[in-house]
């Protein structure tokens, strides 16, 4: 597999379509040895893809984390304002764009598996158009962040700080949408190392930019927000240059085309439920590891279904779920062990550090289940079943999660911990429902649906034989 940027071309299937017995062997003799070989091959393939995607996710998410860390040393009010603005921006902007962009997991991934390489560029252009359009009303929402937070009953002083921070972050919205399009375009081709390079360069520059703009320029927390904007635009610019100049994308990027403006409705049909799936998930630095796993399995599933290999897609899901459980347990243990010192990274205030110490075990439990749902959601995206995922998320959070949070926090007076415990209840419901859907999936049927999606489009395509 070419993960470094080789020319897109025919690939040997991981599991031949006639080899179902090797996947479902009885574990003994020659059949058992073949099964082990196939599983080991899938593990290696997923790690080779997921490892770089995890690193890319961590580096990209680190931009907001680094900014908040710098602001935290300006004082408690500045930290509260930046944290609230970052959370508000995540829910009303970044998560929405990330979710809508993940519709490309289905379109680009299945097109690549079916060797319809030039369609990847068409799908990316369509996503760029839609996400840029969506960013315009989101920018107006960010401009009113302070007033919105005060209307929701938040502290006026903190709300004003958050509103100022959010307004200075508005240019990052448009860069982030375009960045998601380029990342998904490359990810679905397993071209991941250029993303590591661009994200790594951006993260290093961001440290220096934050230091200059926060402490040396006199801008304070506004400087941190501005640093975010600069860094996102640097990252997307690097990837845009790579896509347009690299030989590895010559088959998948053939220039701008009016075809991208056709059939926008089909993109929205997957983009909207995709956004619902992502916006209702909790987000933290630790979550970036299973998020990378989720992107990897989405790519594997969509590629294999597009190529007509349903059992390979099924195996990828089984393997990555096991990997996510192991990783989640390890991270949860480490999180509990460092709970007493983690708060000092964000603030020198003892009250803040003590509260972080109390909350981290609860958050570790949340992240463990969030990681499992993330990879299961990735499998649904690979199949193009975002609508089912959106219904599950809506039910899990609004029927189970939020009522549980209200009950625990405000009726039983458990406070902030009660809010998180309620979210954990929602996550548990979400994981159980997603696991049930995944277990009952007819992979042969999903492969047929992928074929219908690929060849049922109104846009004429050239199929590479």
From TrEMBL:
Q: Which CDD domains match?
A: MATE_eukaryotic
Query: Which residues are in coiled coils?
Result: none
Q: Where in the cell is it found?
A: Membrane
Q: Which GO terms describe its molecular function?
A: antiporter activity; xenobiotic transmembrane transporter activity
- Listed Pfam families: MatE
Any one Gene Ontology biological process term? xenobiotic detoxification by transmembrane export across the plasma membrane
Stored InterPro entries: MATE_euk, MATE_fam
Report how it sits in the membrane. Answer: Multi-pass membrane protein
- For the keyword Transmembrane helix, the answer is yes
Coarsely, its chief localization is membrane
Q: Does the keyword Membrane apply?
A: yes
Q: Which GO terms describe its cellular component?
A: membrane
Segments for region (Disordered): 1-34
Note the superkingdom of the native organism: Eukaryota
Keywords assigned: Membrane, Transmembrane, Transmembrane helix
Q: Which residues cross the membrane?
A: 46-71, 77-97, 127-150, 162-179, 191-214, 270-294, 315-338, 358-379, 391-414, 420-443
**Family from the record:** Belongs to the multi antimicrobial extrusion (MATE) (TC 2.A.66.1) family.
User: Which protein is depicted?
Assistant: Protein DETOXIFICATION
